[in-house]
Design goal:
Number of domains of chain A: 1
Helix content of chain C: 25-40%
Structural class of chain A: mainly alpha
Order of helices and strands of chain A: HHHHHHHHHHH
CATH architecture of chain A: Orthogonal Bundle
Number of domains of chain C: 2
CATH architecture of the largest domain in chain C: 3-Layer(aba) Sandwich
Chains: A mainly alpha, B alpha/beta, C alpha/beta
Helix content of chain A: over 70%
Order of helices and strands of chain C: EEEHEEHEHHHHEHEHEEHHEE
Shape of chain C: globular
CATH topology of the largest domain in chain C: Rossmann fold
Largest sheet of chain A: none
CATH class of chain A: Mainly Alpha
Largest interface: B-C, 39 and 46 residues
Shape of chain A: elongated
Number of strands of chain C: 12
CATH superfamily of chain A: MetI-like
Strand content of chain C: 15-25%
Bound molecules: adenosine-5'-triphosphate, iron/sulfur cluster, magnesium ion
Distance between the termini of chain A: 29 Å
Strand order of the largest sheet of chain C: 6-7-8-3-9-10-12-11
CATH class of the largest domain in chain C: Alpha Beta
Number of helices of chain C: 10
Radius of gyration of chain C: 21 Å
Structural class of chain C: alpha/beta
Oligomer: heterotrimer
CATH superfamily of the largest domain in chain C: P-loop containing nucleotide triphosphate hydrolases
Strand content of chain A: under 5%
Chain lengths: ~280, ~270, ~325
């Protein structure tokens, strides 16, 4: 099936999801073209225009250091995508491998899945907080921590799906052909996990934004000077009455993006192997 | 008489059922409970019996898809049940399995060529891709399919064609023993006949031995030399095909035969 | 007057923007106390025909495109679904193809039978319970007083199928449509279930439509047979006529495909090729690519149904002579 055709199939009859996808496209363009699109330097202080109202030339106004909010929001898109992709990557590799190997090698699974269970006993944010307090505030550490938090749920989901696939007759058939463990796992099981995992990716991407924003807000995430939507909220929260737009713009950006990713995820979910629909109930 | 190719003695495969875990009692399901039979070179032995009597489990245990609890299965002088998975792997080429469901037994994401090349490369039977393709084309022809179907994917084929591909996947390795677990029961009646004829012809031409698992007594009569009747995990009767059909000894065999709907040419 | 009289029934299926014909020009009649067998390969339209009679096509992709279905002289297709349920609800019953999924796993079988009873008769819970017990006894479930409280998973496949039959009989139907009632069962259990159905028929005088892909089951159970191929009835006759004087090449092929159990044959006379899929148009006779008797006109002209002898209808340009 051609790519445009599959895309059409996913979004047919789901106008809202298509709008969501378009919004994500805008965020993506903003992220890539940030240096060209941003009218000001997002880090530059201008003590003379502190807390200015939205208008010309500061369309989104300025914060209490006099930094241009629009420029910070555009660079924030960059952070959003960086954090999303980074945590997705870690969650998929760590969680995916853990889940797959645990389901395939029963003994190993007993051990690994108990560890996963313990980690999952903590609410996601609490787990992230605990891990973050052990580490320095940095972009990389934030990504690692969020990645690990979602690696646990990913491991659970992949564990369940692999258990189902492992019982499929074509896996037995491959074993009978003499295929070894590596071949069964990576050639026969993994490709069948990819499309359900794509759905999972969109949800992790969305929730990673919320986690990152929450960590920023609690002052445990990215270093405060880094332009991210969460930091914009956190830094300016005391000015909520004097300059509410400083909170409204980044807040709306976070909500819109998370909502869009969830819509796209839902649309994707309707197009996967029906046996796996229940596994991907969310993160 | 020569020594049999496969000699199974007192095979038992038990499953522990019920959730394992804290404060839960496990119980044991004796799926196969003391089964003995032998298959000679070039012979077809059928295993018949009602659903759930353990037929598939016998086949799956002999191919190490399940673990035997006790018993032995001497194949070509070696007890295959006592082999470790690594020791058994080279033998997989000689002991092949055809599965019931032609829709489930082919990985949907691999083309027919990839699917058939896999066992060739695993067992180092070919040196390169072009040699593999030659062999695949020849095998596809053997099972009555075009060589050009190689590049296609399982969903593009009908049930009967998929089962032919499943048979090709097995025959391409020139095994010595084929375990066929209900190879035609998922197919349409007219297609069943084609595939049964094909299996019989391939078996005759190659002289491969076969364990044919089925609950269809017509198919069994068509293809086998000897028949073993299984009931609740054990064999109640084993004998030559004619003996089983014409002078059954065990009460269960008689009941089974009496249940076959008769296709009489009834005259008004 | 026949109890059930289907004339020229056409059914279509919506596939994307297309309407594909799945059942074409099917005519069938079932008399009182008679058993009609419908035999054919997977996908030939057996179940859809049955669902059309039951009025259960709403909500599926299939539509009735033409023809009539008369039951006790009334045209069912002229009634609204509501009227139809009210008038016909307890005159017809159906046993479905999937025995394991037709019972709700979370309710006791007794309660499921009771519900079926209460749908048709207004009576007290106590009376419904007694009726359920009576029905379980009728379908010969051993120890019904105890089994009435069982859950479906606690029963064997054959017992579950009996429960299905009990539910279908809850309203004393005049017509029972059984769609592959024994396909998922062992032969020994199949024999018991078929014998049960026959004895119930002798007792109640109901008519039965038995759908199966097994010519043996049909030959043992039915008074007359309709053979379907790709949405059409290709041969129809009384069971004895059909088996003594098979005329359609497909019916002959079907018979040749079945391995005998009472003598040995070297090779089966398999029908070559495969059943065309719904969206593959076959010009002329739909069976011609696989037919041993196909000649010139078969490739261009679709044969009409014609009687080769009274009450023996064959849809073929070149019906085969007596084969016995
Ligand atoms: N992996 C397993 N774990 C637990 N029980 C099993 C397992 N595999 C099979 N069984 C049980 O073992 C018994 C024998 O099963 P098996 O599949 O061998 O029967 P069969 O004779 O092949 O039946 P059928 O004709 O329905 O295929 C059944 O009761 C089945 O439920
Ligand atoms: N709800 C549906 N939507 C789309 N296609 C359908 C639907 N129900 C049936 N069909 C198609 O209509 C054709 C006839 O189906 P039907 O269920 O009547 O076959 P059948 O003769 O009962 O086959 P089987 O022996 O497999 O039960 C098939 O090709 C099937 O794929
Ligand atoms: S009409 Fe022709 S092709 Fe069709 S069944 Fe008869 S002989 Fe065969
Ligand atoms: Mg089995
Ligand atoms: Mg059907």
């Amino acid at each position: 099936m051609s790519v445009p055709h599959s895309i059409a199939l996913v979004f047919r009859g789901r106008a809202l999801a298509a709008v969501g996808a378009c919004w994500l496209l805008v965020v993506g363009i903003a992220a890539i073209g940030a240096p060209l699109l941003a009218p000001f330097d997002p880090l530059e202080f201008d003590p003379f225009v502190r807390l200015s109202d939205p208008g010309w030339p500061h369309l989104f106004g300025t914060d209490h250091f006099g930094r241009d909010s629009l420029s910070r929001a555009i660079y924030g898109a960059r952070m959003a995508i960086l954090i999303g992709s980074g945590s997705v990557l870690i969650a998929l590799v760590v969680g995916g491998l853990t889940g797959m190997l645990s389901a395939y090698f029963v003994r190993l699974g007993h051990l690994l899945m108990r560890i996963v269970d313990v980690l999952m006993a903590f609410p996601a944010l609490l787990l992230a907080l605990v891990l973050m307090t052990l580490l320095e505030r940095s972009v990389l550490n934030t990504i690692i921590v969020i990645g690990i938090v979602y690696a646990t749920t990913t491991a659970r989901i992949v564990f369940g799906m692999t258990l189902k696939l492992k019982r499929d007759v074509f896996v037995d058939a491959a074993i009978c052909s003499g295929a070894g463990h590596a071949s069964v796992l990576f050639r026969h099981i993994l490709p069948n996990l990819l499309s359900p995992m794509l759905v999972q990716v969109s949800f992790i991407f969305a929730f990673a934004q919320l986690q990152a924003a929450a960590l920023d807000f609690l002052g445990l995430g990215l270093p405060p000077e880094v332009p991210s939507w969460g930091n914009m909220l956190s830094e300016e929260r005391i000015y909520v009455t004097r300059a509410p737009w400083l909170l409204i713009f980044p807040g709306a950006l976070i909500i819109l993006s998370v909502f869009s990713m969830n819509l796209v995820g839902d649309a994707l979910r309707d197009n996967i192997d029906p046996r796996f629909k229940d596994d991907i109930a969310g993160v | 008489m020569t020594r049999p190719l496969l000699e199974v003695r007192e095979l038992r495969t038990h499953f522990s059922i019920g959730r394992s875990g804290f404060m839960r009692r496990k119980s044991v399901l004796r799926a196969v409970d003391g089964v003995s039979f032998s298959i000679h070179e070039g012979e077809v032995l059928s295993l018949v019996g009602e659903s759930g009597c353990g037929k598939s489990t016998v086949g799956r245990t002999l191919t190490h898809l399940e673990t035997a609890t006790t018993g032995s299965a001497v194949f070509d002088g070696r007890d295959i049940l006592s082999l470790s998975p690594a020791e058994f792997r080279p033998l997989r080429r000689d002991i092949q399995m055809i599965f019931q469901d032609p829709f489930a037994s082919l990985n949907p994401r691999l083309s027919i060529e990839q699917k058939l090349a896999e066992p060739l490369f695993i067992h180092r039977l070919v040196r390169d891709r072009s040699e593999a393709r030659e062999r695949i084309a020849a095998t596809l022809e053997l099972v009555g399919m075009d060589a050009e179907s190689m590049s296609r994917f399982p969903h593009e084929f009908s049930g009967g064609q998929r089962q032919r591909i499943g048979i090709a996947r097995v025959m391409i390795l020139t095994p010595r023993l084929v375990i066929a677990d209900e190879p035609v029961s998922a197919l349409d009646v007219s297609i069943q006949a084609q595939v049964l004829n094909l299996l019989k012809r391939l078996q005759r031409d190659s002289g491969v031995s076969m364990l044919f698992i089925s609950h269809d007594l017509g198919a069994v009569r068509h293809i086998s030399d000897r028949i073993a009747v299984m009931y609740r995990g054990t064999l109640v009767e084993t004998g030559e095909k004619r003996q089983i059909f014409e002078t059954p000894r065990h009460a269960y065999t008689r009941r089974l035969l009496a249940s076959i709907p008769r296709l009489e040419k009834r005259i008004a | 007057m026949a109890l059930l009289d289907i004339r020229n029934l056409d059914l279509t299926i919506a596939r994307g923007s297309e309407l594909l014909p799945v059942v074409q020009g099917v005519s069938l009649a079932v008399e009182e106390n008679e058993t009609l067998g419908i035999v054919g390969e997977s996908g030939c339209g057996k179940s859809l025909t049955a669902l059309a009679v039951m009025g259960l096509l709403e909500g599926s992709a299939a539509r009735i495109a033409g023809g009539s279905i008369h039951f006790q002289g009334r045209n069912l297709l002229a009634l609204s679904p509501e009227e139809r349920r009210r008038v016909m609800g307890d005159q017809m019953a159906m046993i479905f193809q999937e025995p394991m999924t037709s019972l709700n796993p979370v309710y006791r079988v007794g309660d499921q039978i009771k519900e079926a009873v209460l749908q048709h008769r207004s009576m007290s819970g106590r009376q419904a319970h007694d009726r359920a017990l009576e029905l379980l006894e009728l379908v010969r479930i051993p120890d019904p007083a105890r089994r009435i409280d069982s859950f479906p998973h606690q029963m064997s496949g054959g017992q579950r199928q009996r429960v299905m039959i009990a539910m279908a009989l809850a309203c004393d139907p005049k017509l029972l449509i059984a769609d592959e009632p024994t396909t998922a069962l062992d032969v020994t259990v199949q024999k018991e279930v078929l014998e049960l159905v026959r004895s119930l028929q002798a007792r109640t005088g109901m008519s039965i439509v038995l759908i199966s892909h097994d010519l043996g089951v049909i030959s043992e159970t039915c008074d007359k047979v309709a053979v379907m191929y790709r949405g059409r009835i290709v041969e129809q006759a009384s069971t004895s006529t059909l088996f003594s004087n098979m005329s359609h090449p497909y019916t002959l092929g079907l018979l040749g495909s079945i391995p005998a159990t009472d003598h040995d044959v070297e090779w089966l006379d398999a029908i070559p090729g495969r059943v065309p899929t719904l969206d593959e148009a076959v010009p002329g006779c739909a069976f011609h690519p696989r037919c041993f008797a196909a000649r010139g006109s078969c490739r261009t002209a679709d044969p009409d149904a014609a009687a080769v002898s009274p009450a023996h209808i064959v849809r073929c340009h070149f019906p085969q002579g007596s084969s016995s």
